[in-house]
Design brief:
heterodimer; A: alpha+beta; Nucleotidyltransferase, domain 5; Actin, Chain A, domain 4; Substrate Binding Domain Of DNAk, Chain A, domain 1; eight-stranded antiparallel sheet; six-stranded mixed sheet; 14 helices; B: mainly alpha; 16 helices; about 0% strand; flat
Chain lengths: ~625, ~325
């Protein structure tokens, strides 16, 4: 790892991902190898077993719905059995299963069961490869962004995905913060800024106080399950409903291929309505009409007003969250110096209008809603790796949700309240409740409800090896820390003896260290395997080429022999076929085909040698 | 920067020798700050004088975090200094949280005021109180209305007592009388209005209880009448309106139900149960789409509303029926 090795910032989105870097002090988006700036966050296994990522995967989604994974970000770090996962299972065409422990979510893809982290890692690896191709240098360090409202489990899982993709994750930063960083970079700004980030799957609002190149986040709010996908779904529902009414109750949701086409059409229509007052949705031959009847087509006109009516409550929800967040920040809409719109969904005129009405001002038009987050991540990556190369920046972010414990009666006790600047820590005293108690179980949760079970369980910590004593005599000091990544850590100490207590963590939705090691090992195996095949191929290719050369060398003599005998004309034609196939196999680097041709080549050589011998003068 | 500002501070030579990527001056700065935290006030932490204004605290914080945030030392070996930096950073943030909030800052300023400053402040407060008492006495002597005012004051005192004891009807009597004697007195007018309002609320509460009882006994018509009475006494009683909507539905009057449910939503737009009542009424009228929207709003406001949730599920999925 050299000091000059470039670092990248990645916006790992629900629908699209972007990678950026800072070059000569200027942040810029890195185009993919096919020239595009946005890479769809889609992974697929094609019928031939090939793994596809990005635009290629998205393009074949219609014909291969069950083996195409999109919107993995909505699943990452979530618990099996949670409401969000149950919703997802109902509407997603690909299959979700529970992990071996029953806690986390896995995806069945191409006959394999993969963790969501691995799926996201494939997208990250693709972006990394794009960056390496563009920069002409290896890249191993990155800053990855997540929605501000992501909890510890989701952040952890995203970091793990980075590791699986072979990246050292310098920092996980919040998308709105990242956007603000890109907005303020290189300018002298002293004002309060609100970032309104409505992306493909998540909604975030952050209030920042920017001054002296310090980006101080005052409050964040959001909804990790509100975004463009929900707008698309409203349009889809409207289409399915209308279709059912017109065609005697045919439910398009039963047909995975039709569903995928509907999804694409809904998304396209929604995007078009940002610039047009009305658009036509035309899907010919959508489903078969049943026995003996012709296929059914879908043909409808969607107006902007209708779209706004269908999605009114979603926009209202965004504004309600914004209002709450401003209240948390103690900032009135009129005190806000700038409003940044981030995320593709903010192109929708109704969303812009709602923001304008709420803040009483025009939102900033100076940032590119889809690229700005990745640019900010690149700036932070640069600041965390080579601070003196660019302008100085310092991000001070906050925790999005209360961190606390389950206490007697199933209540939730807050240890670190939301909107606390990170890194931070808090210490709590625990005592034993039984004589000679040797272990204490602590459930750590994150959320807003005062009832423990309604919050997200981050993990259970078991403190054991406590010295035997009468109850209440042992006091254990437990320290909860939240790092600058927003990731939670716990450590414990016996107050009387000063001894560190061992703590074991049961991951709930994340990967355990063992699983992580296993995945990383598997990747190394795969790499080794690839190397080994390469070596085997080279050996075989050398052998085959030697045979080909020998056969070709015998050519003239064989022709002479044929002149005389007229025998074996067939054999020669066959031999030419063998030679041609061997050459193609070499060109295509196809090991199996190469192996298959080796034996026929051997036989041809023997035949040619025999023929050549008959042709030589004086052989008889 | 001279070394003098650390005079009297005992540096541990082992800390100064630690093998880390920090120069000697920076090490001293960090060690000094960390070692001084226990005896420093929030003002000291930010390097400010006592009672410095919010803007100064904010500016000082932005400067200080650039020194004490671990992110400012990327790629450097920090050893034990990382924990020290984080400790100072946390304290800086704590100081910022207190001193950049006007109310908390004022309280903290009083709490940490230097001894002589504190004495001066107390003196000023006493002085203010003495002066205002004098002014009141002077006014009372000069006014020709003093006698009458005394009578009003009596009534008001009794009214206030009754109000406090919860005898709202009695309080309303006294206060309305007092208002009649002194119509210009804004305080009395406000108190009288308050007493009237509370009497109405009490009446509404009684009627609401009766409505609930009637509903429980399966007498929707009587319940509806009681709920209406409650609503008349207190138009902002959203629960009475929602109850009325329920009773009207039970009595088979969907139109009245919708009217009452709308009144409930107007009275308390943030109440999930009001939207729930509206949703049920709309559904009974056959307005499924509007019903769905109201129920969605209800569940969003209060996710624990089981009935709304159930209905909603049916409304959402039944269109293919």
């Amino acid at each position: 790892m050299s000091a000059s090795e470039p670092v990248i910032g990645i916006d790992l989105g629900t629908t699209n991902s972007v990678v950026a870097t800072v070059q000569d002090g200027v942040p810029r988006v890195i185009p993919g190898r096919s020239g595009q700036l946005l890479t769809p966050s889609v992974v697929a296994f094609a019928r031939n077993g090939k793994r596809l990522v990005g635009a290629l995967a998205k393009r074949q989604a219609i014909t291969n719905a069950e083996d195409t994974v999109f919107a993995a970000k909505r699943l990452i770090g979530r618990r099996w059995g949670s409401k969000e996962i149950e919703d997802a299972r109902r509407v997603l065409p690909y299959r979700l299963v529970a992990g071996p422990e029953g806690h986390d979510v896995r995806v069945e893809l191409g006959g394999r069961t993969l963790t969501v982290q691995e799926i996201s890692a494939m997208v990250l690896a693709e972006l990394r490869a794009d960056a390496e191709a563009w920069l002409g240098q290896p890249v191993s360090r990155a800053v990855i962004t997540v929605p501000a409202y992501f909890n510890d489990g989701q952040r952890h899982a995203t970091k793990d995905a980075g590791r699986i993709a072979g990246l050292e994750v310098l920092r996980i930063i919040n998308e709105p913060t990242s956007a603000a960083l890109a907005y303020g970079f290189g300018k002298q700004i002293e004002r309060k800024v609100v970032v309104f980030d409505l992306g493909g799957g998540t909604f975030d609002v952050s209030v920042l106080d920017i001054g002296k190149s310090v980006y101080d986040v005052v409050a964040v709010g959001g909804d990790t399950y509100l975004g463009g996908e929900d707008f698309d779904r409203r349009v889809m529902d409207w289409l399915t409903f209308g279709f059912a009414k017109e065609n005697g109750g045919i439910d398009l949701r039963q047909d995975k291929m039709a569903l995928q086409r509907l999804r694409d059409a809904a998304e396209r229509a929604k995007c078009e309505l940002s610039s047009l007052p009305s658009t036509a949705i035309h899907l010919p031959f959508l489903v078969g009409g049943g026995e003996g009847k012709s296929a059914l087509h879908l043909d409808r006109q969607l107006s902007r007003e209708k779209l706004e009516e269908l999605t009114k409550d979603l926009v209202d929800r965004c504004i309600a969250v914004t209002e709450r967040t401003l209240r948390d920040a103690g900032v009135r809409p009129s005190q806000v110096g700038e409003v940044l719109l981030v995320g593709g969904m903010t192109r929708m005129p109704r969303v812009q209008q709602a923001v304008r009405e709420f803040f009483g001002r025009e939102p900033c038009r100076g940032v590119h809603p889809e690229e700005v987050v990745a640019l900010g991540a690149a700036i932070q990556a640069q600041a965390l790796s080579a601070p003196h190369a660019g302008a100085e920046v310092l991000l001070l972010d906050v925790t999005p949700q209360n961190l606390g414990l389950m206490v007697v009666g199933g209540y939730f006790q807050t240890v670190i309240p939301r909107n606390t600047t990170v890194p931070t820590s808090q210490t709590h005293l625990f005592t034993t409740v039984q004589d000679n108690q040797t272990s204490v179980r602590i459930a750590v949760l994150q959320g807003a409800s005062e009832r423990a079970i309604e919050n997200e369980l981050l993990g259970e910590f078991v403190l054991d090896g406590i010295r035997p004593a009468r109850r209440g005599e042992v006091e254990i000091e437990v320290t909860f820390e939240i790092s600058a990544d927003g990731i939670v850590g716990v450590s414990a100490r016996d107050v009387a003896t000063g001894l560190q207590q061992s703590i074991s963590v049961t991951a709930t939705s994340g990967l355990t260290e063992d699983e992580m090691r296993h995945i990383l090992d598997e990747q190394i195996d795969e790499l080794l395997e690839r190397k080994q095949t390469a070596r085997e191929f080279e050996a075989r290719r050398d052998r085959v080429l030697a045979l080909v050369r020998e056969i070709e060398a015998l050519g003239p003599e064989v022709h002479d022999a044929l002149e005389r005998t007229r025998f074996g004309k067939d054999a020669v034609l066959k031999a030419e076929g063998v030679l041609a196939r061997a050459r193609t196999a070499v060109e295509a680097r196809d090991l199996a085909a190469l192996a298959a041709e080796e034996e026929p080549l051997e036989r041809t050589l023997q035949l040619f040698k025999g023929l050549a011998a008959t042709a030589r003068p004086g052989a008889r | 920067m001279s070394v003098d500002r650390y005079s009297g501070f005992a540096f541990d030579p082992a800390d100064l020798q630690e093998d880390v990527d920090l120069d000697a001056e920076r090490r001293r700065e960090i060690l000094f700050a960390e070692g001084s935290l226990p005896r420093w006030t929030h003002w000291d932490v930010l390097g400010l004088a006592w009672n410095a204004p919010v803007e100064a605290a904010r500016a000082a914080y932005l400067e200080k975090v650039k020194v004490f945030h671990p992110d400012r030392y990327p790629g450097k070996r920090l050893g034990s200094y990382r924990a020290r930096l984080e400790k100072v950073f946390r304290r800086l943030t704590e100081a910022r949280d207190v001193l950049c909030d006007e109310a908390r800052r004022a309280a903290y300023a009083r709490q940490t005021a230097p001894a002589d400053e504190f004495a001066r402040m107390e003196l000023r407060k006493l002085e203010d109180e003495r002066r205002s008492a004098e002014r009141r006495a002077r006014l009372a002597r000069q006014s020709p209305l003093v006698a009458r005012a005394g009578r009003v004051a009596d009534l008001v005192r009794r009214g206030k007592e009754a109000l406090q004891a919860g005898q709202v009807a009695q309080a309303a009597n006294d206060l309305v009388l007092a208002q009649g004697m002194d119509p210009q007195n804004a305080e009395v007018a406000a108190l009288a209005a308050e007493a009237r309002r509370r009497a109405a609320v009490q009446r509404a509460g009684d009627a609401y209880e009766r409505g609930l009882a009637a509903e429980a006994m399966g007498a929707p018509a009587r319940a509806l009448a009681a709920f209406r009475e409650a609503l008349e006494a207190d138009p902002r009683h959203a629960r009475a309106a929602a109850g009325g909507a329920r009773a009207a539905l039970a009595a088979g009057d969907a139109v009245a139900a919708r009217e009452l449910a709308e009144a409930a939503v107007r009275a308390q737009p943030s109440a999930g149960f009001a939207h729930e009542a509206l949703g049920l009424a709309l559904e009974a009228q056959g307005a499924r789409k509007e019903a769905r929207r109201a129920l969605e709003r209800a569940v969003e406001l209060d996710p624990k509303l089981e009935q709304a949730r159930e209905r909603l599920k049916r409304l959402r999925w039944s269109f293919l029926g």
